[in-house]
Design brief:
mainly alpha
């Protein structure tokens, strides 16, 4: 049988997901995986150095597919940061749900915490970069180091929130994962309410006014 030649990176990811679901385990070797899918082993190494690299890319692909779908929407482009993040969550979890069996199989095997963190490392890079590009407003302290700390804190807290949501979704047994939708809406809105700096800005401006007036009076 003639071996397949036009194998893309996306093809390998799809074939890998199918293999894991059908066999309930990872392929033993790249050779065996390539042979089972009728392509040359060297084709695999054009795109990936190991099966772990494929696993990392699977979750990053869910992210890329989500962002690709969102960027096609004119409404999404006009949204503020809060609504963009809400849209991201709902679309991202639609992608996860379409691949729920694989996601649960992968995240729940072996050492759950360490294994999961390793597998989603590429997702973390993409997601925290996405959060950074949302330009979520923080207090401008006029001190670069402090402002950078604030931005990093926002990115890290957003990442933890995403992991917590994934854990909630894995445990969710409600119809159509309705409870996860509620969790997403409440958690994202709460996080933005906490970050709402308008009242704090008003307090700072009022404090500056009082300080200046006190100096003038003296």
């Amino acid at each position: 049988m003639t071996k397949k030649k036009n194998i893309s990176k996306e093809d390998i990811i799809s074939l890998y997901i199918d293999y894991v679901l059908e066999h309930n385990e990872n392929p033993k070797t790249v050779y065996a995986f390539a042979k089972a899918n009728n392509f040359d082993e060297q084709v695999f190494y054009k795109f990936f150095g190991s099966f772990e690299a494929v696993e990392k890319q699977v979750f990053n692909t869910f992210f890329n597919n989500t962002l690709s779908a969102l960027n096609k929407s004119n409404d999404y482009i006009k949204f503020d940061a809060r609504n963009k993040l809400l849209s991201f969550y709902f679309t991202f979890f639609e992608n996860l749900t379409a691949n729920r069996s694989y996601v649960i199989n992968t995240l729940q095997k072996g050492n759950k915490q360490l294994k999961s963190i390793t597998i989603v490392s590429e997702l973390k890079k993409s997601f925290t970069s996405y959060i950074d590009n949302l330009n979520i407003e923080t207090i401008d302290i006029k001190e670069e180091k402090i402002n950078n700390l604030q931005k990093n804190a926002v990115k890290e807290s957003a990442w933890v929130q995403l992991l917590l949501t994934i854990k909630f979704w894995i445990d969710d047994t409600s119809a159509s994962f309705e409870k996860t939708d509620i969790f997403i809406e409440k958690s994202v809105n709460t996080s933005f309410d906490i970050l709402n700096i308008a009242p704090l800005k008003s307090m700072i401006d009022f404090g500056k006014f009082i300080f200046k007036e006190k100096i003038h009076m003296n």
